TrEMBL record:
Domain of life: Bacteria
Organism: Kitasatospora aureofaciens (Streptomyces aureofaciens)
Entry keyword annotation includes Signal: yes
Keyword Signal: yes
Gene3D superfamilies xref list: endopeptidase domain like (from Nostoc punctiforme)
InterPro entries per record: Papain-like_cys_pep_sf
Alphabetical keyword list: Signal
Protein name (database record): NlpC/P60 domain-containing protein
Cleaved signal peptide residues: 1-34
Amino acid sequence: MPFGQSKIVRTAVATSLAAAAAISALSVTTTAQAVGTSSVGGDISRDEIIARAQNWVDQAVPYSQTSWHSDSNGSYRQDCSGLVSMAWHLGSSRVTSTLDDVSTPLGSLDDLRPGDMIDNITTHVVLFTGWTDGSHTTANIIEEPKPGLTARRNTYSRSYLLNNGYKPYRYDRTIDSVPLPPKPAVAPWRAQLLVNGGGDVFHTTRLSDGNWTAFGNVESQAGDIGGVQSIADAGIDGNTHVLAVGGDGGLYHAVRHSDGSWDRFANVGSEAGTLTNISKISAVSIGGDLHVVAVADGKVFHTARLANGTWMRFADISGQAGAIGTVTSASAANVNGQLQVVAVSGGRVSHTIRDVSGAWSAWGDVYGAAGDIGSAQDVAIAGTGGDMQIIVVTGNGQQYHAARYASGSWQQFNALAPVIGSFTANRVSVATVDGELQAAFITNDDRIMHTIRDGSGSWDPAAAVNLSGVSGNHYAVSITGTAG
């Protein structure tokens, strides 16, 4: 939460907020069990700091700058700085610009330890819980994000933190926790790649050593749906959810489980509704829900398979986001727990966001924000940390990358050829796998090229995927990540 700069102003703001808490703020009381043994303003272990913050995540405490959440762990304002104040067991809810009064700046982000905070004193603060990797490219955090969302675990990229004025701090009363037994090793996430060819759909997995498994025919495992057209996949935990448009024009769904077994394809039309002339599909997971975006009859439709296995009905996004003309391509991504969608119409790319209430924002002009790179042929997006990464393939086969930062500002488009190598492409798919952006392209000479952008923003040279066992020409590709 953004508050003033000077210590005098900061103290005045903190005092007024404390008074507001006592006089007029809405206070929500729950019966959550007290966490830990610390006292207000006393020494507190790192384990207890994380446990107290997790308590708000478990209770799904909603963000509010005017409400206080009260339970056996105390009463604290329900915003970003209130969460950190609660986690540290402070005597009151401080603000982003006064939390540094009870903490010490660290030399660099690399000095962070669980229970420390990462603070931009004018905008937002989060609680650090660890790094996703040894190279410290992506931070795991707990936060109260913004109105309309609840306390949650999230990840922020190192580049986003450095580029947006965040600094690391350690609470002055933090004590090291008693070492815990080592946790079981977490299986790394792996890329799952789908390619169509000869009317069939084929699947491969990228192993931790960078090699790909042999392609397998999905329909031989999940059932023949006759002349597969568009395809998409999305990972939920260790399972890969596969969407495909069959020869009858219907949308089918199957699941590849972590042990390699497959559920059979099932037509989702009876639950989600039947679309006609589906030309492109995209899928992404948000929590346990599978969100699907489809281009049909030149319009963009959205549905979701909820964690309980039921489907929402398809709805035309233009009913809320507005009309943008005939759509030829679209892509969806999970960015900070929100569904973001881009679409190509008339060679230009537009962007919209679906908030947690299900409402869509008006379409925005991506070219107006990130630069006009010429007529777009295909587009794909993925979320990394708090940012949305976007790759556009233009009509002349060139590929460009840009990003929409969590702040809403845009990085300008840059050509990829100088960093991944030169080739002409007609299709693209992207996904976040273990904090890295992975991209797959179909080239005009019918190859599948794969590349990775790491957490520092560096790109690997694109390399051709071995297509042995994949028959026919290729006109659809999809990549996702799954655990294990």
